[in-house]
């Protein structure tokens, strides 16, 4: 090729690469990766490791099969949170017909990865539903890797809390109360029965249900799996073993009969903040928020953190993770999904700065914003013009 043409081609390429550099978040807009393909990481979580962020999420495919796991967990990495490099499939589903719990066609949702300092391993947890069984299995599963990007090796799945009562569970609650099975759902009597363990007793032997979930590592290195349990009626928080691959048997309930899913948690000023959604399948609803001084509770329910237009649908999205921004004190990004169940691969992402008014977490819509939002007085986080 003549030198002149080569130079022109190189300049065009450089220009295209430059055009792809993103300098702001644009919630709800297509979010191209370094290959100019919309990020495919739904129900995601983020790991920050050695100066790099790693985004892990459900790899969705087009069409009706796309809500079941056809591929696995997709990983991307980034230095600045705006520009993401495709790192490929970190955890791959097992081949169809293999009989594995994680075979192609299972449901694999909300993967979250944490690093275990004691073992030097990266530990991935996700919500697992067995192939062909709808959402009945309600299990939480773990996989490990020696590098953040994987490949992750499947370890096993759990129904947590088998044979273990939650903290503070009274002796008199260990036997069913007469007639509790016949109580009409959502009545005050039924709510009281749920709070006193009607579903916990039912699942005491096989272990408690575990659907929508997140993982939280506390300042002391202890990790917790927080998941929707009891037919999605009650959240459970369960302590993980020192290697983060199993459960210690210490667990508790959060908001019994509160019907919460999509838990996302952060810690600020010694307090724990939880954002959740209600339970309306793939359709968005109003977020909820909670605060506690101990991960074991008591958890106090606060308001819907979202404000302004579309607050009642959380801006048409559902929480998935509260991302601590590295190097900025108490700066968290609210990460949420805009699900498109008819064509799941199109699903969008809503990332917004999380602010606090006293203890109340707050969200305000911004078409476009940058991390410098966290450098302003926090109550005044606004959109970048
Ligand atoms: C809502 C949950 O938050 C999602 O992760 C997914 O499980 C859908 N329900 C399935 O309907």
TrEMBL record:
GO molecular function: hydrolase activity
Protein name: Glycoside hydrolase family 43 protein
Keywords: Glycosidase, Hydrolase, Signal
Classification via InterPro entries: Glyco_hydro_43, Glyco_hydro_beta-prop_sf
Signal peptide start and end residues: 1-19
Top-level taxonomic group: Bacteria
Tagged with keyword Iron: no
Listed Pfam families: Glyco_hydro_43 (PF04616)
Keyword check for Calcium: no
Family: Belongs to the glycosyl hydrolase 43 family.
């Amino acid at each position: 090729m003549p030198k002149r043409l080569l130079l022109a081609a190189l300049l065009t390429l450089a220009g295209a690469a430059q055009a792809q550099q993103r300098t702001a978040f644009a919630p709800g807009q297509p979010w191209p990766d370094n290959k100019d393909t919309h990020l495919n990481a739904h129900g995601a979580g983020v790991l920050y490791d050695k100066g790099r962020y790693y985004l892990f999420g459900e790899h969705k495919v087009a069409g009706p099969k796309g809500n079941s796991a056809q591929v696995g967990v997709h990983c991307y990495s980034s230095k600045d949170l705006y520009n993401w490099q495709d790192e490929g499939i970190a955890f791959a589903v097992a081949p169809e017909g293999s009989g594995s719990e994680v075979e192609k066609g299972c449901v694999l949702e909300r993967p979250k990865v944490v690093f275990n300092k004691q073992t030097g391993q990266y530990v991935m947890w996700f919500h697992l539903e067995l192939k062909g069984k709808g959402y009945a299995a309600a299990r939480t599963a773990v996989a490990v890797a020696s590098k953040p990007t994987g490949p992750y090796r499947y370890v096993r799945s759990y129904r947590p809390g088998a044979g273990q009562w939650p903290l503070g569970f009274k002796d008199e609650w260990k036997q069913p109360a007469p007639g509790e099975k016949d109580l009409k759902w959502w009545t005050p009597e039924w709510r009281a029965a749920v709070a006193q363990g009607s579903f916990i007793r039912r699942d005491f032997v096989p272990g408690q249900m575990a659907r929508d979930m997140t993982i939280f590592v506390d300042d002391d290195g202890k990790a917790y799996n927080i998941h929707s349990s009891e037919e999605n009626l009650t959240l459970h928080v369960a302590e993980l073993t020192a290697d983060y691959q199993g459960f210690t048997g210490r667990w508790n309930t959060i908001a019994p009969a509160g019907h919460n899913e999509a838990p996302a948690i952060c810690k600020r000023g010694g307090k724990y903040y939880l954002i959740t959604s209600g339970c309306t399948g793939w359709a968005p609803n109003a977020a909820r928020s909670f605060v506690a001084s101990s991960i074991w509770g008591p958890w106090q329910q606060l308001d819907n953190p979202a404000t302004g237009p579309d607050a009642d649908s959380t801006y048409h999205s559902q929480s998935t993770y509260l991302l601590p921004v590295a190097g900025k004190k108490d700066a968290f990004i609210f990460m949420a999904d805009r699900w498109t169940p008819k064509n799941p691969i199109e699903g969008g992402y809503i990332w917004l700065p999380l602010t606090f008014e006293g203890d109340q977490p707050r969200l305000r819509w911004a078409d476009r914003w940058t991390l410098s939002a966290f450098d302003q007085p926090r109550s005044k986080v606004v959109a970048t013009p």
